[in-house]
Design a protein that fits this description.
Layout lengths: L8 H8 L1 H21 L9 E10 L5 H16 L5 E9 L2 E8 L5 H15 L12 E6 L6 E5 L5 H16 L4 E7 L4 E7 L1 H6 L4 H11 L3 E8 L2 E7 L6 H5 L2 E3 L5 E3 H4 E7 L7 E2 L2 E2 L1 E7 L8
Antiparallel strand pairs: 1-3, 1-4, 2-3, 5-15, 6-15, 7-12, 8-9, 10-11, 13-14
Helix pairs in contact: 3-4
Amino acid sequence: MQDIEKEFGPTSWSINNKTSIYIITLLLTVAGIFAYIKLGKEKFPDIVIPRIIVATVYPGTSPTDIENLVTRQIEKEIKGVNGVKKINSTSNQDYCIVDVEFNSGIDVQVAKQLIKDAVDKARTELPNDLPSDPTVKEVNISEQPIMYVNLSGNLPASQLKKLADDFQDKIEAFPEITRVDIVGALEQQVNVDVDLNKLQASQLSFSDIERAISSENITVSGGTIDVGDQKRAVRVAGQYVNAADIANIQLKNLRGAPVRLGDIATVQDGFKDRESYASLDGNPTVTLNVVKRQGENLLD
């Protein structure tokens, strides 16, 4: 019986051309290392979720009326949209929210436009006295904070706000961060509480006070002047820095007599009405919500 020799071509070529194989292996290794270095890495990768939120505000309306007049009308139109997986709705006092989840694979912007079209169709069935049209927004995971920084201590509210502003500027300086939102801080303002009796006796009105404050609280540019070989900018700083400056504003009544604002009103530093709240272990605090820039790597 005669022996038959079989030979596999690529293997024989590799054995006869060792140098070429070494070079190819080296090139593949270098290319793999380079690809690994350039490979995108994220601690918080962007996740696309095809979810759309429809929010409608209807002040002075009970949850039951919101359900019957608004929520059901919007749901009825959304149910006819192709690709909708699930609809969740919540009807509360003065507002309702409809949460629409689409099947995976659909483009978020396409889904948003489909819901906008459905809401437009439902407008004819909605109450005519809605203060504003329903708002349609997509759920963007990249807009969610990746870190919460809490500031708390035995400090005045104004000082905590100043510390929060300083931290906000420093954190936003990092290229990987898109913004930092401050929650729970009190915004400073100057309160002008006018005595109505003194106001009438001075022959002035609220409009006079408003015009006087707005016209004085400005900074005016004065152009430039030549100082030797240099040009210097000139400006007239008139913005108020404390309540005492506002109290010293002089107004003129109908007879042309000057009236000091502090003589007819109580002017003092205060805070705006609180619009957000934050707490840590049950104690009031100021929180900084750090939002990452989309596509940036935080692992390096």
